[in-house]
UniProtKB/TrEMBL annotation:
Chain segments annotated as coiled-coil in the UniProt record: none
Protein source organism: Fusarium napiforme
Gene Ontology molecular function: heme binding; iron ion binding; monooxygenase activity; oxidoreductase activity, acting on paired donors, with incorporation or reduction of molecular oxygen
Protein's recorded name: Cytochrome p450
Transmembrane residue ranges: 9-28
C-alpha cells in the first residue's frame, strides 16, 4: 500500500512521474509541422538534452554550423527550442537597425534567481525596458560618451605607467599588477577611490566578483531555465551546478556593490582630484542636495549603487582579461611584438612614452588591439535581448516578448525564416565567437594576425554588444586597453619561460567557462626592453 511507503520514496516517485509527464507534454507540444533548421540527432522526449554543450558552448555551436553547412543551428531540450545564429549580419540588422524594438531583456530564470540574488538586478546590464532602464541608460550614456571619457585620459595614462613600475619591480606578479590597473581606473571613475598598491583589499573584492561571473555558466543554458519550478527544490535533488555556483558565490557580487558604496556614502574616500567627477560622488551629491530640501528623488540609493557597481565590475573584468590576452599573444608571437615596437620607436621615439595623441599615427598598435578583441571575445554568447513589438525580418516573424541576438531570442509564436520553422518559445543566440572566426570574413581566423586589417578585413563587431544595449562604458574600456598596450610595448619585452633543460615552455591557451571567458594563468618572462626604457617609466 502507498501509505506504507517512506515519505522520501513517495516524494521521489511523485517527482519522477511528474517529470515524465512534463517531458511527454513538452515533446508533443514541440513537434514541428514544418522543417526545422539542421542540428545534431535528437532523442525521444529528451531531445538534445544530452548533447547541448555546458562548456565552450560558442565553439561547439560554431562547429555544428560547419558540420551542418548552415548559419542557423537548432537544438531542443525539455520542450524548449534553441536556435544559434552564426552571422554578424543578422545581429546588425535586428539589434542595430531596429534597436528601439530590441532594447528589452527577457526574464530568464537563472538571471532572476541567481544573478538577481547575486546583486545584478539593479544594474543597467540586466534591467528590463522601462523608465528605470531609460533613466540609467541616459545618464550613463552621457557620462561615458566618447567625448566625456576624455576627462579620464590623464588617469588612464598615470595608472598605465604606475602598473609598469609595479611590473618592473616584481615581474613575477604581473597578473596582479594588471588587476590593480583595471580596478584602479574603474574604482576612481565609479567611486573616486584610489588603489595604489597591488595588495589593496578592493582588488580581492574585484577578483572574487570576476571569478563569480567567469565561472557561473551561460545564462539560459541551465535546467532552471528549462524547468523554472526546480528553482524551489533543494540542491540535493536539483543537481544543477550553475544554480548551485551562483547561490554559493552571490556574496561576492553583493560585496562588490556594498563595500565601495558604503565607503562613498560615509565619505571614506582616499581622495584625489578625480573624486568630484566620479559617478557615485556626483549622484550622491545630487541625492543629498534634494534630500536636504525635501525634493523628489529621481535616483534611489539602490539605483546609485547599481549604476556604480555595474561600472566597477564590467570595467575591472574586461580591462584585466583583455590585457592578459594581449600578453599571451605577445609571448606566442615575438615577431608581432617586434613589429609593434618598431612602429612605436618610429612614431613616438625613445625619449618619451606614448599618450592618446599618438593613437591616430599608431596603426599597427590599433590593429593589435582590434585583433585581441576578435581573437577571443570575452562574452562569446553575450546577454539576451527581448523585443517589445512584433517584427518581421527576412520573412521571419519575431513576435512581441521575444529575445534576440548578441544574445538570445525568445519566440512565443510559430515563425518561419528562410523556409525553416522557428517554433514556440525558441531561444536564439547570436554567436559572437562564430562571428569573430567566420572563415568567409577572416582568413585563418584562429590565427592571431594583426596584419589582416591592413589587408582589408573588417574590425570585429559585437564585442561590446549591439543596439541600445551596447555597453555604455565601451569607450572608457577601449581607451584603457589601448594606452596599456601601447605603454607596455614601449617599455617591456614578453618572452616564453625557459625550463631547467633550456627549452622554452609553451604557454597554455585555456579560458574559463561562464558568462565571460577569462584566460587562465600561464607562465612567461617579462623584462624591460632596455635600461633606457626602464629609466623612462621610472622617471615619470
Amino acid at each position: 500500500m502507498i501509505e506504507h511507503y517512506p515519505s522520501q520514496a513517495l516524494t521521489g516517485l511523485t517527482l519522477a512521474i511528474a517529470t515524465v509527464l512534463l517531458l511527454a507534454w513538452a515533446y508533443w507540444r514541440s513537434r514541428p509541422t514544418l522543417p526545422l533548421p539542421p542540428g545534431p540527432p535528437s532523442e525521444f522526449l529528451l531531445g538534445h538534452s544530452r548533447v547541448i554543450p555546458k562548456e565552450n558552448a560558442a565553439e561547439v555551436y560554431a562547429k555544428w554550423s560547419k558540420d551542418y553547412n548552415s548559419d542557423i543551428i537548432h537544438v531542443r531540450s525539455l520542450g524548449r527550442s534553441t536556435v544559434v545564429l552564426n552571422s554578424a549580419d543578422v545581429a546588425r540588422d535586428i539589434l542595430d537597425k531596429k534597436g528601439a524594438n530590441f532594447c528589452d531583456r527577457p526574464r530568464f530564470t537563472l538571471l532572476e534567481v541567481a544573478f538577481d540574488s547575486m546583486g545584478w538586478g539593479k544594474t543597467l546590464t540586466f534591467l528590463p525596458f522601462g523608465e528605470r532602464w531609460q533613466m540609467h541608460r541616459k545618464f550613463l550614456q552621457t557620462s561615458f560618451s566618447n567625448t566625456n571619457v576624455r576627462q579620464w585620459h590623464t588617469l588612464q595614462i598615470t595608472e598605465a605607467r604606475r602598473t609598469l613600475q609595479n611590473i618592473l619591480k616584481k615581474p613575477e606578479t604581473w597578473e596582479t599588477s594588471l588587476r590593480r590597473l583595471a580596478v584602479a581606473i574603474v574604482l576612481q571613475v565609479s567611486y573616486g577611490t584610489q588603489v595604489l598598491e597591488d595588495d589593496d583589499p578592493y582588488i580581492q573584492i574585484a577578483n572574487d566578483a570576476m571569478y563569480a561571473t567567469g565561472n557561473g555558466g551561460v545564462p539560459a543554458n541551465s535546467i532552471v531555465d528549462l524547468v523554472p519550478f526546480v528553482r524551489y527544490l533543494p540542491d540535493c535533488i536539483v543537481r544543477d551546478w550553475s544554480l548551485r555556483f551562483a547561490r554559493q558565490w552571490r556574496w561576492a557580487i553583493k560585496k562588490l556593490h556594498d563595500v565601495p558604496f558604503a565607503a562613498a556614502q560615509a565619505g571614506n574616500h582616499r581622495y584625489d582630484h578625480y573624486t568630484d567627477n566620479s559617478l557615485a560622488h556626483h549622484l550622491l551629491r545630487e541625492y543629498k542636495y534634494k534630500e536636504s530640501r525635501g525634493q523628489e528623488q529621481q535616483w534611489s540609493l539602490d539605483d546609485i549603487k547599481g549604476a556604480a557597481g555595474a561600472v566597477f565590475i564590467a570595467g575591472a573584468d574586461t580591462t584585466w582579461a583583455t590585457c592578459v590576452i594581449f600578453i599571451l599573444n605577445m609571448v606566442l608571437h615575438p615577431e608581432i611584438q617586434e613589429k609593434a615596437q618598431q612602429e612605436l620607436d618610429a612614431v613616438v621615439g625613445s625619449d618619451r612614452l606614448p599618450d592618446f595623441s599618438d593613437r591616430p599615427a599608431l596603426a599597427y598598435i590599433e590593429h593589435i588591439v582590434q585583433e585581441i578583441y576578435r581573437w577571443s571575445p570575452l562574452a562569446p554568447l553575450g546577454i539576451p535581448h527581448k523585443s517589445l513589438h512584433d517584427d518581421i525580418y527576412k520573412g521571419m516573424l519575431i513576435p512581441k516578448g521575444t529575445s534576440e541576438a548578441n544574445v538570445s531570442l525568445l519566440i512565443v509564436n510559430v515563425t518561419r525564416w528562410g523556409g525553416y520553422l522557428i517554433s514556440t518559445r525558441t531561444v536564439v543566440y547570436a554567436n559572437a565567437y562564430a562571428m569573430a572566426h567566420d572563415e568567409r570574413v577572416y582568413k585563418d581566423p584562429h590565427d592571431f594576425n594583426p596584419d589582416r586589417y591592413e589587408a582589408g578585413e573588417p574590425f570585429p563587431v559585437g564585442n561590446f554588444g549591439f543596439g541600445r544595449r551596447v555597453c555604455v562604458g565601451r569607450f572608457l574600456a577601449d581607451n584603457s586597453v589601448w594606452i596599456m598596450v601601447a605603454t607596455m610595448l614601449s617599455v617591456l619585452r614578453f618572452c616564453k619561460k625557459v625550463s631547467s633543460d633550456g627549452k622554452p615552455i609553451e604557454p597554455r591557451v585555456r579560458f574559463t567557462n561562464g558568462g565571460t571567458c577569462h584566460p587562465e594563468h600561464f607562465d612567461c618572462v617579462i623584462k624591460p626592453r632596455s635600461l633606457a626604457a626602464e629609466a623612462l617609466v621610472n622617471s615619470d
